[in-house]
Amino acid sequence: MRASELFCPTLREVPSEAEVVSHQLLVRAGFIRKTTAGVYTYLPLGFRVIKKIEEIVREEMNRAGAQELLMPIIQPAELWQKSGRWDIYGDEMFRLTDRHDRYFALGPTHEEIITAIVDGDVHSYRDLPLLLYQIQNKYRDEIRPRFGLMRGREFIMKDLYSFDTDEEGLEISYKKMYEAYTRIYDRLNLKYRVVEADPGAIGGNESHEFMVLANNGESQIVYCDNCDYSANVEKAPCMAEEMQETDEEIHDLEKIHTPGQKTIQDIAERFAIPRRRQVKTLIYWADGELVAVCLRGDRELNEIKLKNILKCNQLFMADEQLVKQSCGAGVGSLGPVGMDLKVYVDLEVPAMKNFTCGANEDDYHFMNVNMGRDFVPEGVVDIRNAVEGDQCPVCRQGCLKTARGIEVGHIFKLGTKYSQAMGATFLDKNGQEKPMVMGCYGIGISRTMAAAVEQNNDENGIIWPLSIAPYQVIIIPVNNRKTEQMDTAEFIYKELRKRGIETIIDDRDERAGVKFKDADLIGIPIKITVGPKSLQANQVEVKKRWEDKVEMLDISTITEKVIDIINS
Ligand code: ATP
Ligand code: MG
User: Fold this and answer.
1) Whether residue 540 sits in one domain with residue 475
2) Ligand 1 centre distance from Cα of residue 453 (Å)
C-alpha cells in the first residue's frame, strides 16, 4: 500500500470524549470514526485488523470441527416469545415493527434463531453433535455505550452454538471451545486470564470468561495466590469472615440522634465507629417487590448475587422517593430493626455484635444492634463482593488478589433451557424423543481489537501484535525527493510484497518527522528507514515497534530478516 493513497486520517489532538487509551488511539490513528453513540465505522486500517482477528477466530473454530453459517440480523418477535425472552430481555433489545405492525428485534444474540433452524432440520442422534457459528454484527441498546469499541451498541461478535445428545457430549464441546479460545488468545499475543463467570441472563449453569488484563478493564477479577482459582468478582463466593470480637458482651439497644448524618462515613467520623462496625441497608425493587438488603458498612453489594438469590429478572436500587414511601425514612437512615420489608443480610452480619445502623426514622440511628435479639432476617445470604485479602473459596488457604480485565470471550453451558422451550428435540438410539443439550460461545471481535490496543501502546501510539497488525512493515524513505532513497525504498517494497508481506511504503511528500510520528501512531510492527547515511554502506535501518533498538542491515538480506522477525 502506498501511504499517499491510503485513507488513514490521523489526528494530532486527543478526541475529548475518549476516556480510555484504546479509544483515543483508534480514533487518532485513523482506524475508526464514530457515527453515533456506540456505533462506529471501521476505516481501512481498522477493517484490516478486524478481518485479521476474524480470520484467526475462524481458523480455530474450523479446526475444532465447527461450521460457519450466517443468520439474519432481523429476528421475528415470535421466536423470542417462544423462548420466553421477548418480555424479559428488556431495554437492551432494539425493537422495530414492519409496515404490518409486526414486531422484530435486531439480534442481540442468536440462541432463538439457531435453535429454530436446528429444530427444523435435525431429528436424529446421528446428526449430532453439531457446532455452528457465525461472525456478524450484534445490536444491544447498552445503557452506557462507552470506551469506543469496548462497549458498542452495534458490534461484531463470533457466536457459536453447540448441540449434543447428552451432558457428556456438551462437556466435550465445551472443552473444545475452551481450548480453541485459549489458542486464539495465544495467537493474538494478549495477556489474559480465564475466569469462572456468572451465567447471567442467558441461562445455563457453567460458564467461563476470557479476560484480557488491562487497568481500564470494566471487569473486576479475583484470583488466588495459592491455587489456580480465578473468577469474575460477580461470581466469586465469599466466606463468612470470623469477626475478632466474638466474645464481646452484648449491650442494650440505644437510639441516637444523628441530624444530617446520612452515610457510613458521616457516622464513622462523628461517633468514631469504624465502618466495619456499622451495617448499611439498601432497598431494591425486584420484579415489583421491594426488599431490604443489609451488609457490613465497608462492603460493596454484589447485585448479580442478589439477583440470583431473589431469582428475579429485573433489579433496581429504589430511588429516594420510593424508599421514603415504603420505609418512612430517607436512604441515610435505614436499618433492619423494625423494617417492614423482607430483610436479607449478608453472611457477615450474624457475627457482628453491637453494630450501628439507621433507625428507619430520619436523623436517628441505633447503636448496639444484634441480629436475633433486635431483628430476624428473611435470609442470611452471600451478597457482597469479594475483595483483595479474602480467603480463597476453593483451597481455603490462599488469599484472593484482584485485577481488572476486559471480557473478550464468554463460554456457557446452556443445557436444555432453549431446546426445551423451543421444542428442539431428537430421537435417541432407542427411538426416544429428547431435548438437545446446548452450549453457546461468544467472542467480541471488535472488543478484542480495542483490548489489544489497551494492552499494547506507548506514549507515541499503538504497538500492534504482529498477528493482527493492519500491515506488518512500513518503509520510510527519509526524503522522497532523493532518487536513490526512493529507488531503494521501492525496491524493498517490491521484494517484500513478492514474499507476501503486507507492507506500506510512505511515499508522501512529508517531512521525515511527520512520517515517523504517523508510523509510530498507527503502530506498524516493523519499520524500515531508508536514509542517506545507511545507504552509503548499502544498508537500511530496521526497528521493531516494541523495542528501542535500531539495527543496520544490508539491503540484500532485508527480506529474509523481515521474514525471520514475522515468524519468530
Ligand atoms: P458484558 O458483561 O460486557 O455486557 P455480556 O456478558 O453481555 O458482556 P455476551 O452476551 O457473553 O456478553 O457476549 C459475548 C461477547 O461479546 C462478550 O464476551 C464481549 O466480548 C462481546 N460484547 C458483549 N457486549 C458487547 C458490547 N456492547 N460491545 C462490544 N462487545 C461486546
Ligand atoms: Mg452485556
Assistant:
1) yes
2) 18
DSSP-assigned states of every residue in 199-264 = -GGG--SEEEEEEEE-TT-SEEEEEESSSS-EEETTT---PPPPPS-TTPPP---EEEE-TT--SH
Domain CATH number, residue 279: 3.90.960.10
Distance from the CA of 143 to the center of ligand 1, in angstroms?
Answer: 13
349 occurs within a structural domain: yes
For ligand 1, the distance from its centroid to the CA atom of residue 180, given in whole angstroms, is: 18
Q: What is the CA radius of gyration of the chain?
A: 29
Q: What atom of ligand 1 comes closest to residue 157's alpha carbon? A: 16
Q: Are residues 19 and 137 in the same domain?
A: yes
Asked if 488 and 450 sit in the same domain, the reply is no
CB count, 10 Å around CB of 212? 24
The verdict on 34 and 154 lying in the same domain is yes
Task: Give the number of the atom of ligand 1 that is nearest the alpha carbon of residue 442.
Answer: 14
What residues make up the domain containing 331? 254-381
Q: Are residues 65 and 170 in the same domain?
A: yes
Residues 90 and 166 both lie in one domain: yes
Does the Cβ of 446 fall within 6 Å of ligand 1?
yes
Output the tens digit of pLDDT for each of the chain's 568 residues.
999 999 999 998 888 889 999 999 999 999 999 999 999 999 999 999 999 999 999 999 999 999 999 999 999 999 999 999 999 898 999 999 999 999 999 999 999 999 999 999 999 999 999 999 999 999 999 999 999 999 999 999 999 999 999 999 999 999 999 999 999 999 999 999 999 998 765 556 789 999 999 998 999 999 999 999 999 999 999 987 655 556 789 999 999 999 999 999 999 999 999 999 999 999 999 999 999 999 999 999 999 999 999 999 889 999 999 999 999 999 999 999 999 999 999 999 999 999 999 999 999 999 999 999 999 999 999 999 999 999 999 999 999 999 999 999 999 999 999 999 999 999 999 999 999 999 999 999 999 999 999 999 999 999 999 999 999 999 999 998 999 999 999 999 999 999 999 999 999 999 999 999 999 999 999 999 999 988 988 999 999 999 999 999 999 999 999 999 999 8
- Tell me the ligand closest to 141's alpha carbon: 1
* Ligand 1, atom 23, residue with closest C-alpha: 444
Structural domains of the chain, count: 3
Q: Which atom of ligand 1 is nearest to the CA of 109?
A: 10
State the distance from the centre of ligand 1 to the C-alpha of 444, rounded, in angstroms. Answer: 6
- Do 492 and 440 lie in one domain? The reply is no
Q: What is the pTM of this model?
A: 0.92
